[in-house]
Amino acid sequence: MSKRLGTLEKHAPATDALRPMTELQIRQTREYVEGLNSVSQTYWDMVSVGDELSRDLHITPELVILYADGVEDFNPWYEGWLMNEWHIDGSSPFGGAIVPPLFVSHFVLSVQFDHTKPFAIGSIHTYHDSEILAPIPMGATVRIHTKAIDKFLRRERRYVRHEVTVTDVATGKPYFREVRDILSL
Fold first, then answer.
1. How many CB atoms lie within 10 A of CB 88?
2. Fewer CB atoms < 10 Å away: N or C end of the chain?
């Protein structure tokens, strides 16, 4: 067995487990990374304190199903649908069907990253402090608004802090607030 293992080691590609195995893959990966470096910036470089972005989100039963299945949060309060019948009122202690409490937090990143710019490289969501102000009814259209409120260094790492608000588009009713940090390379 050791003789066979020695033979395999002699013929193994000169690469480690994290690098691509063929010359073509190595070349393509290097070209991809060089392209990112030439057109993309870090999140720290792309965002200035005071930058604000917002988007409206219509919350459909389909979105809630995808979210609830993904986080395995199965609760009859979120069921604004039946098999072969979409958009029923549903039932919860708040009246009709409601949206899972942290559902809108999931969509904040789609607002924070400005889709009109190249995607920021090397960013990690590291912290959030969420405050649920009211249940969001199924079928609501909400506005997710983010504002960059601080940039700071901690342990020689760069962070951007955002303040997030989620309100009803039709009434202005506040549903959700959050403060979140993004670590940037």
1. 14
2. N
Residue 15 is which amino acid?
A: T
What are the structural domains, with CATH classification, of the chain?
Answer: 2-38 (no CATH), 40-184 (3.10.129.10)
Which pTM does this prediction carry? 0.73
Mean of per-residue pLDDT scores for the chain? 82
Phi-psi region for residue 124, left (φ > 0), alpha (ψ -120 to 50) or beta?
Answer: beta
In one letter, which amino acid is 151?
K
- Tell me the one-letter amino acid at 59: I
C-alpha to C-alpha distance for 53 and 39, rounded to whole angstroms: 22
Beta-carbon contacts of 98 under 8 Å, excluding residues fewer than 6 positions away, are 77, 78, 90, 92, 135, 136, 137, 138
Please state, as a whole number, how many other Cβ atoms lie within 10 Å of the Cβ of residue 33. 11
Q: Is 3 helix (H, G, I), strand (E, B) or coil?
A: helix
Alpha carbon distance 165, 145 (integer Å): 5
Q: Which of 151, 145, 146, 149 is nearest to 184 (CA)?
A: 151
